[in-house]
Amino acid sequence: QVQLVESGGGLVQAGGSLRLSCAASGGTFSTYAMGWFRQAPGKEREFVATVTWRGSTYYADSVKGRFTLSRDNAANTVYLQTNSLKPEDTAVYYCAASSIQRYETTWYAQKYGYNYWGQGTQVTFSS
Questions:
Q1: Which of 24, 43, 46, 115 has CA atoms 20 to 30 A from the CA of 33?
Q2: Confidence band (pLDDT; 50, 70, 90) for 125?
Q3: What is the C-alpha to C-alpha distance for residues 18 and 11, in angstroms, rounded to an integer?
Q4: Contact residues for 15 (Cβ-Cβ < 8 A; gap 6+)
Q5: Phi, psi of 100 (to 5 degrees)
Q6: DSSP H or E run through 3
Q7: How far is CA 114 from CA 42, 47, 66, 86, 127, in A?
Q8: CB 32 within 8 A of CB 98
């Protein structure tokens, strides 16, 4: 059983940055694709970014150029660097892991591609 613990959320002002972390335990981290999703109040959970076991990444258009996802297999951790934050980035951010191996990186943009989910970390835009 894989457990995921997110951290790094908080209050942020216009143009600010946060580094979200997701630490995994259990399973074989290096073989998993890892993803970030977010859910704003009253909205569906949406895809943010993914990094496959091969290290390839894919981003939602809404965050491309502002967010960067990386993984450290030695530390069993993924990092989502969020820059130039906007009010519409306010949401609970969830980390997810997938043991399903697909070649197409874009496949991991869908929620049902993931077996394991963390509890989430809140990112709130402060004016």
A1: 43
A2: confident
A3: 9
A4: 84, 85
A5: -80, 125
A6: strand 3-7
A7: 22, 12, 24, 27, 34
A8: yes
Amino acid present at 64: K
Output the six-digit token pair for 30: 């290096």
**Amino acid letter at 16?**
G
Q: Is residue 87 classed as helix, strand or coil in its secondary structure?
A: helix
How many Cβ atoms sit within 10 Å of the Cβ of residue 38?
24
Residue 13 token pair: 């002002």
Contact 39, 92 (CB under 8 A): yes
Say which amino acid occupies 84.
S
pLDDT tens, position by position, 31-77? 999 999 999 999 999 999 999 999 999 999 999 999 999 999 999 99
Kindly tell me if the per-residue pLDDT of 127 is higher than 80.
no
Q: Which residue has the tokens 């970030």?
A: 36
Beta carbons of 121 and 62 less than 8 angstroms apart:
no
What type of residue is 123?
V
Distance separating alpha carbons of residues 89 and 95, to the nearest angstrom: 15
